[in-house]
Structure formats: C-alpha cells, structure tokens
Design brief:
The structure is a homodimer.
Chain A (H helix, E strand, L loop, with lengths): L10 H5 L7 H14 L12 E2 L14 H11 L7 H7 L4 H14 L12 H15 L8 E4 L1 H13 L5 E7 L4 H9 L2 E6 L10 H13 L3 E8 L11 H14 L2 E5 L14 H11 L9 E6 L13 E6 L3 H13 L5 H11 L9 H27 L4 E2 L8 E2 L2 E2 L3 H9 L4 H13 L1 E2 L1 E2 L12 E4 L6 H17 L1
Helix pairs in contact in A: 3-5, 3-13, 6-13, 7-8, 10-11, 15-16, 16-17
The structure holds pyridoxal-5'-phosphate (2 copies).
C-alpha cells in the first residue's frame, strides 16, 4: 500500500472540481491522439474540436504579428546586431525593433527572474493604459504581474480567505477556477445565481439574499467575485449593474474582485471597468465609496491577443491596506515571479501599435479581423442553437462562449442516471463520442437545480462542426423522446 | 478601516517567511532604482550586486545561443517561411530550424494552452533524457511540466499535506520555498539539521532523531525533502547518503521529494539522482524498496541553462498511487498549464545539440565556458572568505552558493539587538548599505541556534565586488571588536 492514497491526501484538493479539464477533456485528448496516429477508423469523426476551453490559438486564431515579432527579438537579442536583416530580410518594421529594444532595456534578459510583482517599467506601462482606459489615475505600485489571471485569482483568494468560515460571493454559473480554489482553501463559496431571463445579468436582490442568508448562517462574507464579461454566460454587464454591486459592496464592506479578462470580447454595448465606475461614483458622492477595496484582473489569454500559453496577466488593487499589500507581495515572491516573456506580452497588449506607427496597419487589420470573425461565429452558432429543439440561448454579448439551456426528455435523464451521470454530462459525453466535439456540461459551472446547459466556445472556424452538433442533437432527441 | 487588515487576512500567509526576497531584496531594488536614475551620489557605491538570488542571467551568464535561436522561431513561426534568411542572413544552423519545426509540430502555437500536465511530446523527450541519465526506464505519463520547480513543489506539498498535523522533514538550512509553502498550508515543518562539519552532508541519525521526535509528538510525518545539490549549502551528496535516506524512507514509509534543480552545478564528485539510486537498490534487493514513492524535481532556472524568467520545470513521480496522480493532475489543471515556451526550454535542456550536430560546437563552448566560469568564481570567492577574520567556509561543491559561517564580536550582537535584528541580518544590512552587495542572512534559511551565516551566490563577474566584501568585513570587525 502506498503512503499516499486518495483517502489520506489533502481532502480539500480531493474535493476540488474542475470540469473544464475533467473527464470529457481527457477523453477528447485520447480521441485526438488516435486521430494523430491515424487510428481513428473506429471513430465516427475525423477530427476533434476542443470547444471546451477558451484557447483561441489552439483553434483558428492567429497570433498578432507585431507581438510575435517583438517576442522573437526578446528571445534572441542577438538579432538586434543584424538590424538590416530584420528590416529588409524579414520585413520587421522599425517599431518592432524599437519596442524590443525598449523592453530589453527595462527587462534585461527575459531569462532572468524579475522583481516579484513584475518588471517596474511594465507596471508603469499598465498604469498608463489604465489611465487612458478609465480616465482616472493608476499607481504602478498597486499593480502585480501574474502567470495568467489564474495565478492572480489564486493569490487574492489565498490572502483573503482566513479560515473555513470566510465566505466569498461567487456568481453561478461561474468559471470553476473560483470554486476549485475555494475548495482547496477550504473556504466557503457563497453562490449567487445569475439571471438567465435577463441575459445572465447580475440581480442585486439575488446577491443580497445570498449574502444575508450566509451571514445569518454565521459565515464571514468578505468579498464578491464578478466575472464581466461573463464566463460561461458571455454576459456583458451594463453600468447600472456594476453601480449596484459597488454600492452594495460599500454598504456591506465587501472586497470586490472583478475578473475582467474578457474586457475586449464585447459585442453588445460597451465594456465598463469596475475601476472606472468606482472612481466615478467616488467623484459623484464624495466620501461614500472611498473605502471600497477593489481588485481587478486582466490577462493576455483572451481578447484578440489570445496568448494563453504564455501565462501573462496582472491585477490592480485599489483601496487595499498597505500591510495587506505587503503580504500579497510576499506571497507572490514565494513563486519568484510571473513568466517574463508573458509580462512582455502584457506590455504589448496594453500598449499596442498606434495610428501612424509602422506596424499599425497590419495590427489593426489583424485585430479587427479576429474580432469580426468571433462575432460572426458567435452569431452563426447562435442561429444554429435557435433552430434546435429544446435549446434556448440568448443573443451573444461577449467573451468566447455560448451557454444554451437544454431541455432533455425524461428518458435521457433515466439513461444518464443509469450511468451515474447528470443528464447534461450524459449529453456532452454522447456528443463527444458521436461528433468529436468537446463541450462542458453546465454542472461544471453550476446551474439552477433542474436546469441543464452546456458551454461551448465559438472559436472553431467554419460551420461544418455546427452542423455536427445539430445532427447529433436531432438524433439524441429522437432516441430518448 | 479597510475590510482586509493584516490582522484578519489568512494567518498562514501572514506567517510565511521568504527572506530571499524580503527586506534586504526590497532595499537593494531601491538602491538600484537610484543608481538607474543617476541619483546614487549619496551612496558609497556605484552599482548594486544581487548576490541574494540564484538569477544567472541578471548577472553575467549569457543564454545558450541554440536555445534562444529556437525560441525566436517558436515565437515567430513566420520566420520559417524565410528559411534562407535564417540560415544565411542570420547564421542560424539547420538543427535550430529543425528543432523549431519539430517543437511547433508537437506544440502547435506556443500561445495556446497545452495539456494540463504538459505537451505530450515534451514529456516523452524528458522520459528519454531520464533513461539516458539514469539507465532505467521512465514513463512520460508520470512526468508533469511545471512553471519552474517552485510550482512543482507547491503542487506536491498541496497534495501531500492533509492537515496541520501532517509533518514534512525539511533540511535546515533550506531554500525557504519549503518552509514558506508549509506555513501557507498550515502543515508542520519537521526540521533536520545538515552537518556543517561534514560539508553540509545529510546525517541519517540526525534525520532519524528529528523524525522520532516528531512522531513522538504525534505528528504524522509523511515525506522527506532533500535538496541535492544543496541550497544554500552547495553540498553535493555522495551516493551513500542517498542510499541511507532511501533506506530510511522505505522503512518508515515516507514519500521522498528530491529537489534536483542544481543537478548540473556540481564541481566535486558527480551528481547521483535519487531515481537512479532507488532503481539500483530495487534491483539489488528485490522487494525491499518497491514501495518507495519518489518525486524528483528539475528546472530550467539553474545549471548552464539559467532561464529563470521562463518559469520552466518538471517533476517525475515514481511509485505513486494512480488515484493520487489523478488528483495531482486535477490540481495542476486548475491553473491550466505551465508556460508553453518554458516547456519548450525544458525540452531543449534535456535534449541539447549532440556531437556532430551543426550547433554542437558553439553549444559545447558556451556550456563549458559557463561551467568553468562558475567554478573559478566559486573558488575565488572561497579564497577571499578563507582570508577573512572569523569567517569559515567549506570548499565549493556545487549549486550556485557559498554559505560561510561568520563569527561576529559580541558588540555587533548588541548593536543588532538594539535594532531588533538578529546579528546576521544586521551584518547583511550593513553590508548592503556599505557596498551595494545584497546577500541573505543565514536566518532566512535556518541555522543552528548560536551559529551565524550568510548566503551569497558566486554568479557576479569579476573580483572587484569580492574586494568590497573583504574591505567591509574588516571595517565591521574593527568597529565592533
Ligand atoms: C473568467 C476567467 N478568468 C480567468 C481565466 C484564467 O485565464 P488565464 O489564467 O489564462 O489568464 C479564465 C480562463 O478561461 C476565465 O475564463
Ligand atoms: C533548491 C531550489 N529549488 C527550487 C527552486 C525554484 O526555482 P524555479 O522555480 O525557478 O525552478 C530554487 C530556486 O532558487 C532552488 O534553489
């Protein structure tokens, strides 16, 4: 018998759930390996589509040329000694070379550890971006580079959660990083349900009653998480929703954690940052909102950047106690620093080529091409869903996902139960086996009891795969009717 | 009053100590900023030397050309469309292009998330390296890519530590990642002291008595950490020490965590991997050692690679229960994946150019140049220490550090106490203020009561800075005699 068994390891690690990369994802990798080895004859499909995870460059999204050209020089600074080859032989524009020089000047080698909270000059560049975006000052000292937003969330929750009684308000459905991390930390997730009937908006009364109930149970609720634009819902919050949340947080003295990694993936209306709205409220009603503690997170993984594999991101803290920040600094320093090339991608994301720069034209073309492509795919997928029996799906608003409700016949529920599965999981596994398309059951994100969903990205190119879903769904409904 | 205060945040985060990047490191960054701004007139030195952290490329170590050329193509695969420019204009060798193609074929885009435990082909390449290194089979399925070894240690300790009563045997002095992570996890660190009189070797009787004592106190001791070659000690363990530890671990049913990030930084004798020694013992005495669970860690940050900023590493598990491995897989998947370009550096580290390959000659020259440079600096620094009053330091054996004992006059102890500092901390702060050289006090790693040390890397080039230390030390001793 081994010393470590599933029964004696950390029970909180054991309890954590992370469906986005769970059984379905593992199964899809197995199918993929078969396809790669040319051994897919037995499978009813020729290729696997990972619609389970917002991983743009795994599918069709091409990296932005400017970013990658700069990165190639950062990786091999000796290229700067052959500037004429770069410019004439490889067609790099002069601003690519300039940016690489600037970054190398401030970073040193991308192979060296940086300061624990990130390269100072990159933090300054982020602060300037935030000032342009929000119209309010930002202080580089309150900015922390991270290995993707995931690591930022991990840091923040580790600091905030003091014991099992600490409660964190988390939207349901949610990106399971939150519930998984709270499990590992053995803290209390206080779920508040998003309102599907209002485009998955945040209803402040629902938030309040979840909060009141947890408080009545003795939970020390300290923070509220908001994902905007939403994952898995795709919802893009109107300013009014954000105001209500901030007002509520101020009154109840809650830390606000705004996960804004999809801030550029907005199709309907416009993105409102929590920081900008908070600062406006502070201006409008002096004194009333001064005490709000806000942490907002961003990432290079999403948007038109899509550099997931580089693990870059940052969070900004507003209104935090300096001693608490010192502990956050210490915590991140234990892992030394965020990947430095990822930090450089953050810098380029927040400070891309501008009108008039030699690389602007191509950058702009690529950027809007990706944006339009995403919008079109979202709409095409939405249209397909709207024609499927028992499937309901709101209009695409933002992020990279659609999260349709599925109404399955009772017989499907029985077949699922016979396999010890929830009906949505059963549906998704059958979908994968029949079509090679991997999506995530709604239960992976949380959903109201009795309702069923699945989440799919709209990143995969073409419409052929949408057709596969439509066909599968029809057959599934026939079979279990 | 803020919602989060230093008194109500996670007490285990607050309790964690991480001196390598603590007050001294922060102060040295401030000095550096002054120097950079040309405002160092008031300081008694012209430059700051970060000898506090094993960060080769921050100092003199140049990256290996082959690695960086390949990385430049991985970042910008469009370069492959101009192969003749790469080969003729930039002087890239054909094996650089081949490796980049091979990696891209298996990785896809370095901007995409990989599988949670790493790119399958890279895991296979690591397994082949382990087979060549150890002469025993390795299974890619038991290999997990990580964001530096730090993240590997974090994963393993998170899984192993079930509650405050879980004990982990940790060498003292140690790299503080271990004690800091155990603090955050609220688990019990069971210290065993290394034997300074025997070149900081591991004395099995000391280990046993630490273990017995903890057991008698009711601690559930589950694992033993070994850092070989050592940090901060530099000790490189003889095979006999490793055998004794494995034998002890087998008898007491302890998981072995072997931190082997300095495996190529060995000046005296040769590196023995725990895996190879374990497999030999298993062959020699069938049955007796079959149950040993071994996790061994490696990193791209150290050795002649020195790519700290890229955050790459891996760990291999031997003898772990598959259900436990499934939980480890799930845990790493919460953070999605290790930086993909860092994973590619791991592949290149374990599979560098070989004799006969076009890039071999340069690779070999750079590699041995770095190795020799480190050895020479280690010896020069050691010589300087041997001439300093009250300083004792064993011969350099490996890793990147010297860890001399310092014998300070009682008056220095009094002056330290007056500042609320330990004497070694006091010494290191004065050293930084007087010379711009940042080292870490022994208390940051743990040391026997009454003994004092500091740790310095021998990465900084030249001997001028060694002279600064010698001069400072003399004045310090005069002042407090
Ligand atoms: C809402 C949300 N937050 C955070 C993340 C983490 O992304 P990363 O760690 O790659 O920045 C994701 C990834 O899908 C996400 O959807
Ligand atoms: C003994 C030891 N283990 C692990 C690490 C972590 O290194 P990294 O996370 O960069 O691989 C270090 C870094 O100095 C170390 O000295």
């Amino acid at each position: 018998m081994t010393r470590l068994t599933v029964d004696n390891i950390n029970p909180h690690v054991r309890a954590a759930k992370y469906a986005v990369r769970g059984e379905l994802a593992v199964k899809s990798e197995e199918f993929k390996a078969l396809v790669a080895k040319g051994e897919a004859q037995s499978l009813p499909f020729d290729n696997v589509i990972n619609a389970n995870i917002g991983n743009p460059q795994q599918l069709d999204q091409k990296p932005i040329t400017f970013f990658r050209q700069v990165a190639s020089i950062l990786e091999n600074p000796q290229l700067l000694e052959k500037e004429e080859v770069l410019l004439n032989g490889l067609g790099y524009k002069s601003d690519v070379v300039d940016r690489a020089r600037w970054l190398l000047k401030h970073v040193g080698s991308v192979g060296a550890y940086s300061a624990s909270n990130g390269v100072p000059a990159i933090k300054e560049s982020i602060a300037k971006f935030l000032e342009r975006r929000d119209g309010f000052p930002a202080n580089p000292a309150n900015i922390y580079l991270s290995a993707g937003a995931s690591s930022g969330v991990n840091t923040l929750l580790h600091t905030i959660c003091a014991n099992p009684n600490t409660g964190i308000l988390v939207p349901i459905p949610q990106y399971p990083l939150y519930t998984a991390t709270l499990s590992v930390l053995d803290a209390t997730c206080v779920p508040y349900y998003l309102d599907e009937s209002k485009n998955w908006g945040t209803d402040i009364n629902t938030v309040r009653s979840a909060y009141e109930k947890a408080k009545a149970d003795g939970t020390d609720v300290r923070a509220i998480v908001i994902i905007n634009p939403g994952n898995p819902t795709g919802a893009s919050l109107p300013e009014e929703d954000i105001r209500q949340i901030l007002d509520f947080a101020a009154k109840e003295n809650l830390v606000v954690m705004a996960d804004e990694v999809y801030q550029t993936n907005v199709f309907v209306g416009k993105f409102h940052s929590f920081k900008a709205v908070l600062r406006r409220m502070q201006q409008e009603t002096p004194g009333q909102y001064d005490g709000v503690e806000l942490a907002s997170l961003h990432s290079i993984s999403k948007g038109m950047v899509g550099e997931c594999g580089h693990r870059g991101g940052y969070f900004e803290l507003c209104g935090f106690d300096p001693e608490v920040e010192a502990n956050i600094y210490k915590f991140v320093s234990i892992m030394l620093c965020a990947p430095v090339i990822g930090q450089c991608f953050v810098e380029m994301m927040v400070n891309p080529p501008r009108q008039g720069d030699p690389s602007f034209e191509l950058y702009d073309k690529e950027h809007s091409g990706i944006f339009e492509g995403l919008r079109q795919r979202a709409n095409a997928l939405h249209k397909a869903f709207s024609e499927m029996e028992g499937v309901q799906c709101g209009e695409p608003q933002g992020s990279m996902y659609l999260f349709p409700t599925i109404d399955l016949p009772p017989k499907a529920g029985e077949a699922a139960a016979a396999e010890g599965r929830s009906p949505d999981e059963f549906y998704c596994i059958r979908l994968l086996e029949a079509t090679g398309i991997c999506v995530v059951p709604g239960s992976g994100f949380g959903q109201k009891d009795g309702s069923l969903h699945f989440r799919t990205t709209f990143l995969a190119p073409g419409t052929e795969w949408t057709g596969r879903i439509v066909k599968f769904h029809k057959e599934f409904m026939e079979k279990y009717r």
